[in-house]
Amino acid sequence: MAMNDKTPPDEGVEQANGGEANPPTLKTIAFMTGLGVTTVSRALKDAPEIGAATRQRVQLVARQIGYRPNRAGVRLRTGKTNVISLVLDTEEQVGGFVSDLIYGISEALAQTPYHLVVTPYSRNNDPLEPVRYVVDTASADGVIISRTEPDDKRVRYMSERGMPFATHGRTHMGIDHAFHDFDNYAYSVEAVKKLAALGRKRLALLAPPSSLSYYHHMRDGFADALMEHGLSEVPFPTATVDHSIEDIRKLTADLMRRPNRPDGFVSGAGAGTFALVAGVEDAGFKLGQDIDIVSKQSSKLLHLLRPQLYVVNEDVRLAGAELARAVIGRIAGRDIASLQSLSTPSAVEAYDA
Amino acid sequence: MAMNDKTPPDEGVEQANGGEANPPTLKTIAFMTGLGVTTVSRALKDAPEIGAATRQRVQLVARQIGYRPNRAGVRLRTGKTNVISLVLDTEEQVGGFVSDLIYGISEALAQTPYHLVVTPYSRNNDPLEPVRYVVDTASADGVIISRTEPDDKRVRYMSERGMPFATHGRTHMGIDHAFHDFDNYAYSVEAVKKLAALGRKRLALLAPPSSLSYYHHMRDGFADALMEHGLSEVPFPTATVDHSIEDIRKLTADLMRRPNRPDGFVSGAGAGTFALVAGVEDAGFKLGQDIDIVSKQSSKLLHLLRPQLYVVNEDVRLAGAELARAVIGRIAGRDIASLQSLSTPSAVEAYDA
DNA sequence: GGCAAGAACTGTAACGTTACAGATTGAATC
DNA sequence: GATTCAATCTGTAACGTTACAGTTCTTGCC
Fold first, then answer.
1. Chain centroid to CA A115: how far?
2. Residues of B in contact with A269 (CB under 8 A)
């Protein structure tokens, strides 16, 4: 049995043995077990043509010495990066939104070999650029994007090139893909219903920018519910949740000083609601008296701002976890239909003292 | 001139040329220029022993065909990952804090070849674990950590093993290292000074958890300034900025109902201040009248919560950018002393209507 | 006893890059 | 004309992994 013709992994290195131990590789295990590297490699991934005894022996040794596959080696050989890329707009307004998304994703990735890489872009630049980078350099196995548009270039790009991805928000472009979304239609329906029940008649909507998909959902729900309850809309077109706090505040105050001011607001974002409230009060009106506001929030701060606010909670952390599961599902080749989820808003909550 | 003995990069692949083009490699450029891969490699990194004409020719071709070095190849050969790892506590309370940190880091990394990998851990587990993982598997060239402690195991671990890193916050353990910190000592000195000027006498501090470095800075500044202005402290030991909004609120209300309640608060975190205000009002007291509060904030929401609040802004995005610059500096072997920065708090701001 | 077939294992090559040790020039020096 | 030298270029090997094409050995069958 020619066992000693295996080359020990550190041969040629003259350092004393007390020096830094290099991380173990397949070669290390091969040397320790007297097997070939190929056998070790296959034994570690439970290949069928490896004997049960050998497999167990290899896995035991690997565990003992704390073997971890070298990511660069695997990536170079197989092309598998074990990376999920989160493409983020770094101009994103305030709020723990992005933090929560990242926490949710991390949570779901923790049990997997995947690392999370944040790929930023500036809203001023082309949103397609970071996606193109990731796809062209194959620097991730899957991508998560947010700020989804109804006809989204990024979705088309990734679809055409077979890059697995999941979107935060839906599209309407005839391409089926994994997504997670908050049901903003249901949200604004519930919000309007609440305001109707409070006797409000003329409602305004602080909407997302009209380029984004959820603008349409929110707007449609708003319009349908207005119709159903026989209420009217006070247009508030210039302001969106993407505007700065100062802008929204000023636009709101202006709106409130008009003769046909609204007596109810539906707000699409927690931070925007801070500005709404300030604008309303700047104009001299009182929340819960002259006007009522229903807002979405991802943090829990709105009721501390004003207890008169009505809120619906959006669990962004959950969204992150769902998105991570969805991309991983796509990478594993799972069925798209099973990787699409919609989060139903909870009931509108009044402040509970 | 034997030029055609170079092997074209796609030899052996039977696909028609109309198929997907594989990303160009050094071999591609070598083939196109008629040079050897080694020459191409060196030409691209401006090595001195390559002729000026050749260098330009190679770089031109590389640019034209959109060559990008394969990260796995570089990483495997050199050990350089071109990755910065941000180690994050995923239990972090609320606030755009982490978002801003990430945006700041991304901003600074955008001009470099570095990718940002988020390495999460749960506060319940050992904070050393993710750091050990990154160091042991050499999965990043540099690390950024936050929630720094005066005697920080992670700092020791990375120091001893020569992993470049930067900390958000300082340590006091006789190890010199790169950091960025907000001057929380100066902050609480200014905060107390403001409250003294307002005629407040009995101050309480909503501090960070006592395990963290900035607890001590904030506390020392608080104590020194109390002394200087002849004010007294109302102990508020159980509550920290890490507690939930609900907990802080309740503890604050309890405190305010005591006979020796404070007439001024210094708050170490924006989200905590939301809870402070709620607790104060729960107990029936009025901000600006019975009590004044000075708070740090990283978002701009506090003055919308209550205009009576006094705020100091902490630019976390800047902190992120500084931290990124600091780690990169360490990786480049720059002097530690030049990679330590302290951000001086701006003046205490009252609401400016 | 000879042979086929499977089980269990092995070596080689390749992914893309760079370190290292040459090789090939042409010009300058003696 | 030979020798040295610098300038410029090149091939080979290796980083750690896996696909592929063997190789060896045992066992069963005729």
1. 15
2. none
Q: Flag whether the pTM goes above 0.85.
A: yes
Question: What are the angstrom distances between the C-alpha of A230 and each of A129, A196, A326, A330, B17?
Answer: 45, 9, 40, 44, 63
> Whole-angstrom Cα distance, residue B231 to residue B215?
20
CB B131 within 8 Å of CB B145: yes
Q: Is the pLDDT score of B17 beyond 50?
A: no
Look at residue A91 in the predicted model and tell me its pLDDT: 81
- Tally Cβ neighbours within 10 Å of residue A68: 14
Among A187, A183, A184, smallest CA distance to A348 is for: A187
Residue A17: pLDDT over 80: no
As ranges, strand C nucleotides with an atom below 7 A of a protein CB are 7-12, 14-21
H or E stretch including B116?
strand B115-121
CA distance B323 to B180: 6
Partners of B267 in the β-ladder: B206, B295
- CB–CB of A117 and B119 under 8 A? no
Residue B11 has pLDDT above 90, yes or no: no
Q: Is A103 close to B120, i.e. CB distance below 8 A?
A: yes
Per-residue pLDDT band for B123 (boundaries 50, 70, 90) equals confident
Average pLDDT over residues B309-329: 97
Is the pLDDT higher at A250 or at B10? A250
pLDDT above 50: residue B2? no
